[in-house]
Write a structure and sequence with these properties.
CATH class of the largest domain: Alpha Beta
CATH architecture of the largest domain: 3-Layer(bba) Sandwich
CATH topology of the largest domain: FAD/NAD(P)-binding domain
Helix content: 25-40%
Distance between the termini: 21 Å
Number of domains: 2
Number of strands: 19
Radius of gyration: 22 Å
């Protein structure tokens, strides 16, 4: 059970690292307790929301890199970011692809009733981009508590309706259940007719992002034919059906390339000798298996994914015990109000330009380890709206650098 590369973490950064290594013909093992935050939050690919809509993203990234030398983007560089994004989009083929609207960010409606900037969007969301110029109808479902059509429609000056579901009268329903029903033609026929009867001059129709798990374009086109207007998806609260589509596409492709998946397993401990990791012990009750490799990538995310943990005194990284940049004492971790910028969101692992972990003195800690994704220090991806971009770029870059030696 020896590999060229072992990746710890199955979020977007870990999947990108696995894709990059597999394309180079390496023997890869990817280990994850779960599917990462990809299936919780990712609907689109945010690269840098701070770039104005009228500015080319490339120009905005160039300036950002100059102004933020400690940011993960500065370590990867503009070319590396663009190569990573190109590698990501190459995974998706028509009819379900990710695309840009022009050369920069576009704005899409959200389930919170706001318009948010993003860069790459799936085809199912294109018709809703910059939707204020259109007249639309937002459709929700009674019993689906994670999407309120009237709340979403209000800021757009659109209308919102909530459809009854004969399948579960009076019961709460989930996004995954709705997604499964959407893939059934009789269900689409029923709701399509009801929506058509409710139209009042609208030219487009917004649904929560539940247009099927396997073939959302087929669902979208069938609804458009039945109703007679453009249909698009709107990002909803977790779980993210579009994020699940991304994960499933990666998994399908990687397995075909020979990548080994250990999903639902955690790394119990690691074997370190002379500043090199020799292997990891993976706990699979009631036994613990040892897997060795020449190189490793840590892509476990921050607090939600368990990549970082905190007690009353400090923040730590639990697998390799790598040093974490600390935002002062616990009293300094958070701002005074909920909407302040909280310093804890900038904590993470320090690395050199090749994403090898380093101490605060700049000295390399482990020679054959690379770090990727949001666990890296020097960014506030929530505020920057850069999470998926950081994961894609650093996952790609970490694998490239790991394969160099």
């Amino acid at each position: 059970m020896h590999y060229d590369l072992i990746i710890i973490g199955m979020g977007l950064s870990g999947l990108m690292a696995a894709k990059t290594a597999a394309e180079a013909g390496r023997k890869v093992l990817i280990i994850g307790k779960g599917m990462g935050c990809l299936t919780l939050f990712s609907n689109t690919i945010d690269v840098l929301g701070k770039v104005p809509e009228t500015t080319r993203l490339r120009d905005g990234l160039s300036q950002w890199i100059q102004d933020h030398p400690e940011h993960p983007y500065s370590k990867v560089g503009l070319t590396g970011i663009e190569e990573g994004l190109s590698s990501f989009t190459s995974l998706f083929h028509p009819p379900y692809i990710f695309q840009t609207i022009g050369d920069g960010n576009c704005f899409i409606p959200t389930s919170a009733g706001t318009m948010r900037p993003t860069y790459l969007i799936p085809d199912t969301m294109v018709a809703g981009a910059s939707g204020k110029a259109k007249k639309g109808l937002i459709v929700g479902f009674k019993g689906f508590k994670d999407f309120y059509a009237g709340y979403v429609a209000g800021p757009l000056n659109w209308r919102g309706i909530a459809l009854s579901l004969p399948e579960t009268p009076g019961q709460e329903i989930s996004a995954t259940a709705l997604s499964r029903w959407m893939e059934k033609e009789p269900f689409r026929k029923t709701i399509g007719q009801e929506i058509k009867n409710n139209l009042s001059g609208e030219t487009c129709l917004g649904f929560p992002a539940i247009l099927g798990m396997n073939d959302p374009i087929k669902v979208k086109r069938d609804l458009e034919e039945k109703i007679g207007v453009e249909v698009f998806e709107i990002p909803a609260l977790p779980p993210s059906i579009p994020g699940m589509r991304i994960f499933n596409r990666f998994k399908e492709w990687l397995i075909r390339k020979g990548v080994t998946f250990l999903l639902g397993h955690s790394v119990a401990k690691v074997s370190i000798k002379n500043k090199r990791c020799e292997g990891v012990y993976v706990f699979n009750p009631p036994v613990s298996n040892f897997y060795s490799a020449d190189r490793f990538i840590l892509a476990t995310g921050r607090f939600i994914g368990g990549g970082l943990i905190a007690d009353r005194e400090r923040i730590s990284e639990p697998i390799f015990n790598l040093p974490v940049s600390q935002p002062g004492s616990q009293e300094e971790w958070f701002g005074k109000s909920f909407f302040d910028e909280h310093p804890i969101h900038r904590s993470g692992i320090l690395t050199d330009p090749s994403l090898r972990p380093i101490a605060e003195t700049g000295e390399p800690i482990l020679e054959n380890i690379r770090v990727a994704g949001t666990i890296l220090s020097g960014h506030h991806c929530l505020d920057e709206k850069s999470r998926e971009g950081i994961e894609i770029a650093t996952g790609y870059w970490a694998a490239k650098k790991a394969m160099e030696g």
